Amino acid sequence: MNTKTQVTDDTAPGTVVVRETSRGQFQRGVISGPHRLLADEPASVGRLDSGPGPYEFLLAALGACTSMTQCWRNYDAAHAMSYLKGRNSSGAGAPRVG
What we know:
This protein has one helix at residues 54-86, and strands spanning 16-20, 28-32, 35-39. With 98 residues, the protein is α+β, with helices and mostly antiparallel strands. A 3-stranded antiparallel β-sheet has the order 1-2-3, with no helix packed on it. It is elongated, with a radius of gyration of 23 Å.
């Protein structure tokens, strides 16, 4: 890795780039599309504590994924109930199968 590289350029969608920042022994710049993040280790182990550590990023990713999945499940369930409430007893408005 080039320790002089600044975290300034955009990346293609779906691409994540991690680079040394030349600040502190473990600080890293993370680029994901237009988003900029810093990763680091805590001050309690002698680092800059300028951002979450790798384990915190992993936990954040898992938590965000779980939360968003639950949100989509609730969204889908609400739309299904809305659809069912809108149907009359003859089944008019129901999608055709086949």
